[in-house]
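Before the break, one more example. Copy the sequence into your notebook; we will annotate it together after we see the structure.
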Amino acid sequence: MEPAIIMSHALHIRLASTRRWRLALAAAAALGLGTACASAAAASPARPQTRLPARLVTCQLGHATNFNPEKQQTHADITFDTHHRLSLYLPAIGARTAPPPDATEAAEPVDSRTRVTEDPDGLTADAPGPFDRVVDLWPERVELAKTTPTGAFKTLLVSDYDPARGTARIFLGTAGDITSYDLKRIYMGECTVALNPPRGTRRR
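Here is what the structure looks like once it is written out:
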């Protein structure tokens, strides 16, 4: 999987940050994230969607203590010490009809309804603003990124949606500066997905 979104300001300053960010999401793919849905689609292609449904994604994330994007790791190799709840609201939008912009290109406008709706432990508290970049390739994956006030950036990957179980998986990471991914702030876990949730469940 080649991630589509990278903070453009980081790219303009140091290409090292591009490599680190790509390594992190590539490692997430190596752990199995983002591959199940793609394999299923290849096995039984369906009619392309013209519009994506609204989705409330409620996740339980574990804090990874030994994640290393430069090593070959399986999900079984990762150990966790704490667990946290996080919810995202992804609004109903039209399905993509063209590839997303390259990481070196300007970001597309982000639907303002896309947001974190629940984060009691403050995993995203250092990035309180709206998302800067969103690439919604549902049901294969959704990539999101936002910048912190200090110039760091936070990335999320929602993938492996299983419509039969109503579940998906999530990867959350933070780059502490423009050249290094903060390996002490890596989280991953499983989510439940509610399609077209009632309006009262979409807010904090």
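Strands lie at 51-52, 55-64, 80-90, 93-94, 115-118, 133-137, 141-147, 153-162, 167-175, 187-195. DSSP finds three helices and ten strands in the chain. Try to locate both features in your own notes.
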